[in-house]
Amino acid sequence: MTVTAGGYVVAIDNGSQSTKVLIVDGGGVVHASARVPLRPYASPSPGRWEHPDDDLWDSVVAAVSEALGRFEGDPSEIRGVGLCTIRFCRAVLRKDGSLAQPVMSWMDERLPRAYEREVDDAAYVTTSSGYIGHRLTGERRDAAGNYQGMWPIDTERWAWSGDAAAYVRTGMDPQLLFEIVAPGEPLGRVTVAAAHLTGLPTGIPVIATSNDKAVEALGAGLRNAGDVLLSLGTYVATMTPGAGPFAQHPDVWTNFAAEPGSYLYESAGVRRGMWTVSWFRDLLSASGPVSEEQLNLGAEGVPPGAGGLIVALDWLAPADEPWRRGAIIGFDGTQGRFHIYRAILEALAIETEAADSRARRALGVEREALIVTGGGSGSGPMLEILAAVYGVPVRTPLVRDAAGMGAAICAAVGIGMHAGFDEAVTAMVGVGARVDVPDDLQAAYRDVVTTYARVVPGIRALFAPPG
């Protein structure tokens, strides 16, 4: 690969709650950014969760246009686009590439099942990145690393399966599927039509990344087996680098990484994790705006244990236990909103640490440090609680949109701005906040963790069906 210096890449991070766009140089400096919220999910029937209308594409167009409007550099020096989108989504397209039905969210009950044709004009089945990539380039090509779940994918080869039974099991004829490529490979080039809508230069390459969690890990600088990445997003789980697919295990599952041939080992997670924080903030804002900054300041004055409040984080029940419900218990009249907020943060830390510990035991690897990404990485109380509960030093990436930086890294490698992923990560990823293990809090949280281990199973048992 010929390495060339200079220029910029546009990174698109199409997440669960918003689309974020960064314009980044080869040193990881962000020269412009934008964020456009997604519309609330539509739920046409119980268990079905869809992105309304063409919301994903509309948000990409708006966020790219906004970021480019803020960019003070030379647009002709923008040399490529890195595209990262939400994992576990399914898009059904007509022959012309338009949506035949709304994009199914990762929460939709249909996704763990084999594909069943619901509309007569369905011609292709792909992921959200396949759809957005097609809108940008006109090509039917997608990122191999975004195919986890009910797809006929060969995880070891990063390729479509050679086993006919895989297509029967998933309900997907090969003719329905896009071509797939590795991270750093081109998906195509920006079309005249896409350039007109977004403001991107016509003809620049759009580079494949992987699934959003993997791209986030890359952009946060997760490289060492002893490091754990905690992604504080709508879905909250830990990840650590792996050498290959891990044997099937209830506490660990293998995800594609955002580098060709690399993998991530992922723990069990909390569904609607940081969404619960947003839910609580919005609930309080019904009587006047309340920011997370205000909640973080208030939570600093609440002692460990949140005045006895305990939260069961089941705002979205897992598929195998659909009867679960979220709960907050332990009120005695002395607690207020900051106690509730801190209790939610504590529950996230305790629940995810327990899942990571189970995964670590299965992997046989000690935990050495915790990298925290996502919206909650800007919360001082959250970082302190995590350091105390996990018992290791915590750090955050300098650029909080780690998935955006990961997409920029893939683009930088793909266009030859850097020779490879190691060089790109070294040049483009910096360290933001650092928090050492607070000894006094760690001792206090041992009792809180013990209480959670005793009480939360009982809360869940209250909702379990008889027998």
Indicate the low-confidence ranges by residue numbers: none
Number of strands: 22
Overall geometric form: globular
Assembly of the depicted chains: single chain
What is the terminal separation in angstroms? 62 Å
Q: Give the number of helices.
A: 12
What portion of the residues fall into strands of 2 or more residues?
Answer: 15-25%
Structural class: alpha+beta
Computed over alpha carbons, the radius of gyration is 22 Å
Mean pLDDT over all positions: 95
Q: How would you sum up the major sheet?
A: 8 strands, mixed
Helix content: 25-40%
What features would you describe in this structure?
33% of the residues lie in helices and 22% in strands. It is an alpha+beta fold and 467 residues long. Strands 13, 14, 15, 16, 17, 20, 21 and 22 form an eight-stranded mixed β-sheet that branches. The protein has a six-stranded mixed β-sheet with strand order 3-2-1-4-12-11, sandwiched between helices. Strands 5-6 form a two-stranded antiparallel sheet. Strand 15 (253-256) and strand 16 (263-266) form a beta hairpin. It is globular, with a radius of gyration of 22 Å. The N and C termini lie far apart (62 Å). The mean pLDDT is 95.
